[in-house]
Amino acid sequence: MPFLDRPITNFRDSDDVDLGKKLVTKDYLLSVYETILESSGATGLVVTPELWGWGRGNDGALGNNALAVRPTPVTTFSGGTNWKQVSAGYNYTAVIKTDGTLWTFGQNRLFFNPSILTGNLGVNDGGDGSNRQTPVTTFAGGTNWKQVACGSHHTAAIKTDASLWIWGTNVYGTLGINDGNVPRLTPVTTFAGGTNWKSVSCGQYHTAAIKTDGTLWVWGYNDFGQLGDFSTTNRSTPVTTFAGGTNWKQVSAGGDNTAAIKTDGTLWIWGNNTSLGQLGINDTNTAPRSTPVTTFAGGTNWKSVACGVIHTIAIQSNDYI
Predict the structure, then answer these.
(1) How far is Cα 23 from Cα 8, in angstroms, rounded to an integer?
(2) Residue 193 region by backbone torsions, left for phi larger than 0, else alpha for psi between -120 and 50, else beta
(3) pTM for this entry
(4) How does 263-277 read in b/e, with b if 16+ C-beta sit within 10 Å?
(5) For 36, how many CA atoms within 13 A lie in the half-sphere containing its CB?
(6) Domain CATH number, residue 219
(7) Confidence of residue 80 (pLDDT cuts 50, 70, 90)
(8) Pair (86, 112) in one structural domain
(9) Is residue 321 domain-resident?
(10) Same domain for 7 and 71?
(11) CB atoms within 10 A of CB 204
(12) Claim to verify: residue 232 and residue 128 sit in the same structural domain
């Protein structure tokens, strides 16, 4: 029977047991879809996760073995269809493949002062510290990377064992390792350690992460209160926000501000609040906020949030943005 003429039925497992109308994993859905396509003689219709990049490639940030601007999307030099998650930093990129390996490419030095090695690629090249035009694996290697986040010149990633690793520039305590400004060329764990990290986000010079217990931790640059700990003191070790709590769901670190969503659907934001309105609190008082505040829009239906350098954007559960 032609594929398009087949009756719509519930999903079934390998033993032909009716799964009913229940949630199934994406991998299972794709496997079922591929099996049906193959049996019907249709091929090449399943979209595979290729990696594409575009924009400024002068430092190798597009990973296409070139140093030129690309106004249209191009694939990386390594190609492949096994890319899983990607994060873009300041002129560099980090990506995790479906096999759990972590790859980086692009700038490995300060853009405005190339003599300073930042090590945000994590490749341990203490020699020339050159930029990379094609994807390379981090010095730590491994096949158990789960999530990666890029900042301006530092990178953080979580492994499948829930351990948190970080590397790159360490000014203002960006890495959270409780020492001076010496950059780390290879991944190291934060001073807090532990194997209960759920997600992480890197800002310009600060970092925010949520643990599996729902607590929110921040560290690094804090001149504008972007750590939300009711101070403007830089922190070289992870601290919790002034709001505390164990119901944080998602966090995003921006230029000099941070935004996070709780499990109750409320959206909170703190940090720099210039006349550009990046906190969204409809306040003529442009002083920074060093503790989390809700946006002017309020509500309990926020789904996800992302911070730019000086703006913020979020999606509600009704899919409005």
Answers:
(1) 16
(2) left
(3) 0.80
(4) eeebbbbbbbbeeee
(5) 19
(6) 2.130.10.30
(7) confident
(8) yes
(9) no
(10) no
(11) 22
(12) yes
Report the length, in residues, of the chain.
321
d(C-alpha 125, C-alpha 162), whole Å: 27
Residue 114 lies in a domain: yes
pLDDT above 50 (res 37)? no
| Higher per-residue pLDDT: 69 or 16 | 69
What is the per-residue pLDDT for 117? Answer: 78
- When divided into structural domains, the chain yields a total of 2
Residue 25 — φ and ψ, nearest 5°?
-75, 160
The 10s digit of each residue's pLDDT in 212-254 is 999 999 999 999 999 999 999 999 999 998 888 999 999 999 9
Residue 47 falls within a domain, yes or no?
no
The DSSP H or E segment spanning 262 is strand 257-262
One domain for residues 301 and 203: yes
Nearest-CA neighbor of 77 among 98, 58, 52, 56? Answer: 52
Residue type, 47: V
Q: Tell me the pLDDT tens digit for each residue of 39-64.
A: 445 444 444 567 888 888 777 788 77
94 shares its domain with 14: no
Grouping H, G, I as helix, E, B as strand and the rest as coil, residue 28 is helix
Residues 130 and 242 in one domain: yes
Each residue of 160-214: pLDDT tens digit? 999 999 999 999 999 999 987 788 989 999 888 899 999 999 999 999 999 999 9
Parent domain of 181: 52-316
Q: What phi and psi, each to the nearest 5 degrees, are found at residue 148?
A: -135, 145
What the block records as the tokens of 218 is 């921040």
Q: Do 109 and 251 reside in the same domain of the chain? A: yes
Structure-token pair, residue 157: 């990633």
11 shares its domain with 138: no
Residue 86 confidence (pLDDT) above 80: yes
